[in-house]
Design brief:
The protein is of the alpha/beta class. It has one domain: Rossmann fold, CATH 3.40.50. Helices cover 25% and strands 18% of the residues. An eight-stranded mixed sheet has the order 4-3-2-1-5-6-10-9, with helices on both faces. Bound molecules: S-adenosyl-L-homocysteine. Keywords: Methyltransferase, S-adenosyl-L-methionine, Transferase.
């Protein structure tokens, strides 16, 4: 069936088929980026994401710079900051974006080989003197993006932490990540260990990148609502959606991709889901610098 023959007849993503597809891909940047892991894309992507976060939450910038406010309120300056990375793959966004700006990251990913690869890299980062091999993908990928072999920031010195959870977004509640152990399995934590368990302490930013197409509209809206309820400070926290957008002509539209059983939504289709979830669009921007023939990638910041 033609994917957009009629929007009413679009199939819903099938969670099992999606996971099966991803489980057949290499556990590497190239695998999670559909073959774009070894060029400039990972670097351009991470830079665009970090710039967006520093623009919207300048207090996250911890080194002297033009974006850092001169006076950060003490309660903001002295607390640990927390980010959630969902549909996180092998931990690319955690490593190259979030650990540069936040104290504690919780990484959620359903596919065994991906979440275990992320955990392996996190553990290897605790001891950066361990063999370089420890950073390489387990399943023998030969071409490695150089970003993939850098130890994760703040893990060896235990100033930062990453907690690894295996779950689908359909099953995951960001406000209570470990509430249902059969559905969301906590696999481990690397780096900083807090004196009191902090897993239920909500987030400053929920980052969703290249994974929300695995959810149908109802599941997506429900996930957004749970994410909104998991923002620590409802007036400052942000949900960031960084996703492909398909074309449209004045109406919301989506394209179904058989290969990974996912939906690519148009700009208006994303915005319809945001509105239905009670989210307010704070900022939107198209990621520049990606190859022209790819779907345009948009970043939406919401709360
Ligand atoms: N966000 C990461 C990975 C993108 S690849 C990055 O930008 O590098 C897409 C990811 O979505 C894969 O890791 C895949 O396993 C994950 N995914 C697929 N179905 C999912 C679901 N139902 N819930 C959560 N994640 C899912």
């Amino acid at each position: 069936m033609s994917s957009d023959a009629g929007q009413d007849s679009l199939p819903d993503p099938d969670v099992g088929k999606g996971i099966q597809y991803w489980a057949s891909q290499p556990a590497s940047y190239d695998g999670v980026l559909g073959g774009f892991g070894n060029g400039s894309l990972p670097r351009v992507d991470a830079l665009g994401s970090r710039q967006l976060l520093m623009h919207l939450l300048p207090e996250l910038c911890t080194v002297p710079s033009a974006v850092r406010p001169l006076h950060v309120p003490e309660d903001l300056a002295n607390r640990r900051t927390r980010a959630l990375d969902v549909g996180a793959g092998v931990g690319r966004v955690t490593a190259d974006v979030l650990l540069h700006l936040f104290s504690d990251v919780v990484l959620v990913e359903p596919v065994d080989i991906f979440v275990n690869q992320a955990l392996r890299r996190g553990k290897a980062s605790e001891d950066p003197s361990s063999a370089d091999k420890a950073y390489l993908p387990a399943n023998g990928a030969t071409e490695i993006n150089d970003l993939e072999v850098v130890p994760w920031k703040g893990i060896a010195d235990k100033s930062k932490s990453v907690t690894f959870i295996q779950a689908t977004l359909q099953d995951f509640d960001p406000a209570h990540p470990a509430a249902v152990p059969e559905k969301a399995k906590v696999l481990g934590r690397v780096g900083y260990i807090p004196p009191v368990d902090d897993l239920d302490s909500k987030f400053d930013v929920v980052w969703c990148q290249w994974c929300l197409g695995a959810l149908n509209d109802a599941d997506l809206v429900a996930f957004f609502r749970r994410s909104k309820a998991a923002l620590r400070d409802p007036a400052r926290g942000l949900i960031v959606v960084k996703e492909n957008t398909c074309s449209e002509e004045g109406f919301p539209r989506a394209v179904f991709d058989e290969s990974d059983s996912s939906l690519t939504r148009s700009d208006l289709a994303w915005k319809e889901c945001f509105t239905n979830a009670g989210l307010k669009l704070i900022y939107e921007q198209t990621q520049g610098g990606f190859p022209e023939h790819l779907y345009p990638v948009k970043m939406y910041a919401l709360r």
